[in-house]
């Protein structure tokens, strides 16, 4: 039985990865940081929390002693570093904390592995946000970086630390440059979940309007369950490397809103431009989406689109869920969670949460 240590197990990817590894026969040690309000709901949703192969352990990525203690106590074969301050907007208001957690924290963990058991295989969660003001489209492993946020800068430090540990110490450190991946378990501050939740609530009369920032930003959105499979494959490869995981298609925030509202039974018509643009319900004529310039970022990443050819060729990885199905899955989950009566559910709603295993065999 292999043992895996996942940092940031309470986050979206941590929950899906823990479920995947348990289904593959691993013992999973899930690192969570102490807080006054614990966030174990994702692990509970995927039936991981009480699983006999799963164990929670207190761990803070910024504390080297904390990493040494986990590594020596549990002797993992694989470490997945998913912990981060991962919200780009917050990185502008908390740049130092973001750098310490998402940047220096990753290097601290790599050093803990190097100084304790350097044969451990390590996955570093790198980000498409490192491409920022993109130099080429689509982006792949050879595209130059130009981060546009303190988060992107911190992730770039962590990425190069991963590459450096691989080259300097011959450690097995894989870096996954992942494009946006979402699910019903996504944090509510991220735009897809914010939209899915609002579409459900507005259609049920529980919310009047949805306020969004830049409607025209485009992202390459995939399903988190598919992406954690790619992380695992990177650590099973014959040699450590850097891989892009993406779908190869890009969708604007406005188009994602169209998809989500349609799944909640509402067609949107867009009127106006810039900060005056609004989304109107085609049936009622009511404005349900509006722009709030306060949600614009100091620097924006306009368009991301990835080219995952290397992952497909060398890892046999291919995303299964396209953006339209993702929006449908996320909106259906919102209806499920508010306990909406069947009559209020949108037509042909999907099961609320798809585990990685079902997603891959669908
Ligand atoms: P997430 O939901 O925000 O989860 C982040 C996790 O990190 C949470 O469990 C959080 O704990 C934990 N954490 C934060 N600070 C910590 C610290 N000092 N010590 C230990 N744990 C800490 O993020 P995600 O979407 O699952 O993403 C997983 C990783 O992939 C992140 O590194 C993210 O930057 C990266 N990534 C994500 C995407 C994406 O589209 N999802 C794309 C590319 C890269 P709390 O629950 O206590 O906050
Ligand atoms: O959902 P977002 O906050 O995700 P973002 O900034 O692309 O970052 C996510 O993906 C990265 C990988 O590419 C990860 F590394 C990172 O950890 C995170 O998971 O915003 C997506 C886009 C942005 O352009 C933003 O300006 O949506 C735009 N947007 C428009 N209105 C909004 C909103 N974003 C948020 N969060 N909230 C809004 O109201």
3D architecture notes:
Strand 5, helix 6 (150-169) and strand 6 form a beta-alpha-beta unit. The chain has helices spanning 12-23, 41-45, 64-74, 88-93, 95-116, 150-169, 191-203, 224-236, 253-263, 309-315, 323-337, 356-361, and strands spanning 3-7, 27-32, 54-58, 78-81, 121-127, 173-178, 181-182, 210-212, 218-219, 222-223, 242-245, 251-252, 268-271, 278-281, 287-291. The longest helix has 22 residues, at 95-116. Helices cover 39% and strands 17% of the residues. The structure holds NADP nicotinamide-adenine-dinucleotide phosphate and ligand G4F. NADP nicotinamide-adenine-dinucleotide phosphate (NAP) is lined by residues 7-8, 10-14, 33, 35, 39, 59-62, 82-86, 101, 105, 125, 127, 178, 180-181, 187.
Short description:
With 362 residues, the protein is an alpha/beta fold. It is built from twelve helices and 15 strands. Helix 2 (41-45) links the parallel strand 2 and strand 3 (54-58).
List keywords for this structure.
about 350 residues; alpha/beta; 7-stranded parallel sheet; 4-stranded mixed sheet; 12 helices; 15 strands; about 40% helix; globular; disordered C terminus; binds NADP nicotinamide-adenine-dinucleotide phosphate; binds ligand G4F
